[in-house]
Amino acid sequence: MTAVGPADRYGRNADADARANRQLRIAAILLGALAVIGIGWYGWHSVVDSKVSAQVVAFKAVSDQAVEIHLEVHKSSGTVAVCTLRSEDKDHNEVGRKDVTLAEHAKQVDTIVTVRTTARGETGELVHCGTAPKN
């Protein structure tokens, strides 16, 4: 009786295995390159498109119907920014929201915004700030 090797038993040979390994390696390299390109594109656009940054410097409830929010915005000169501000009560319910358009040509804008509320506001928060949509 003669010994039967695995290649004879299962019908595979070394050349087929080498071809399959080469094809898998090429597919993995292509998918890796596409992933790197996609991540780079996303990172580039998230950095380049964020021409506006903002922060709340301070806030205070001036009455049961209003909260004053001191907003500091950094942007390119000539860029029109739109910032959304809100106030919440002590139970974290939203009691006021306001969109503020900042069209000043300065690179830094400090402004105090009054947000009208339906109940006493305990917080003054920045929800979002970005460039205004172009008409």
TrEMBL record:
The chain crosses the membrane at residues 26-44. Keywords: Membrane, Transmembrane, Transmembrane helix. InterPro entries: DUF4307. This is DUF4307 domain-containing protein.
